[in-house]
Amino acid sequence: MLRWLLLIPFALLVAIGASGFFLFLACIVDPTMATLTGDTVFAGFWSLMDDIFSSDDPEPIIRQAFEVMGRLVFTLLVFPPLLVAIVSEVVKAKSLVWHVCATAILTAAVPWILRGSIRVATPAELHVSAVLGLTGAVAGLIYWLIAGRDSGGERQAPR
């Protein structure tokens, strides 16, 4: 019970923080991600400023912007490791490969699942998916190091 109350939430928090830090570094170091992130932040910031200054009451606009950012962070950084951790605990999956690969694949697939259309991907989209996959792999690795090795409960001592 202590595992569910302390260890798993702690492991998830550290894994999500590490994957967020990795994604932040990737957005700075990787040229494709830097261009995408820079253009998105630039356009989003000035669009938000236009909406704020053209409104009599900017509070709902700011609240909506924070809600959208929260949903984005939850979808890319929180949901994949959380789902993999829950599945791992239920099926008692203790494998490093399972934790890393499942979280990586799920994180890389999120944009494709949300888009919902079938078309050929551009090289830039594949590059972003690869970076997101690495972000998920970092989360899976960190979670496994802290709590994943004992998924499903305590290990039984050999008889």
Structure description:
With 159 residues, the chain is an all-alpha fold. The radius of gyration is 19 Å and the shape is globular. The longest helix is centred in the middle third of the chain and has 33 residues, at 59-91. The protein has helices spanning 2-29, 31-53, 59-91, 96-115, 123-146. Helix content is 81%, strand content 0%. The two termini are 24 Å apart. Helix 1 crosses helix 3. The model has no long low-confidence stretch (mean pLDDT 88).
Key phrases:
0% strand; 5 helices; mainly alpha; 159 residues
Question: In terms of topology, how is this protein built?
Answer:
Layout (H helix, E strand, L loop, with lengths): L1 H28 L1 H23 L5 H33 L4 H20 L7 H24 L13
Short summary:
With 159 residues, the protein is mainly α. It contains five helices and no strands.
Q: Poorly predicted ranges (pLDDT <50, ≥5 residues)? A: none
- Percent of residues in helices comes to over 70%
Alpha plus pi helix count = 5
Spatial extent as radius of gyration: 19 Å
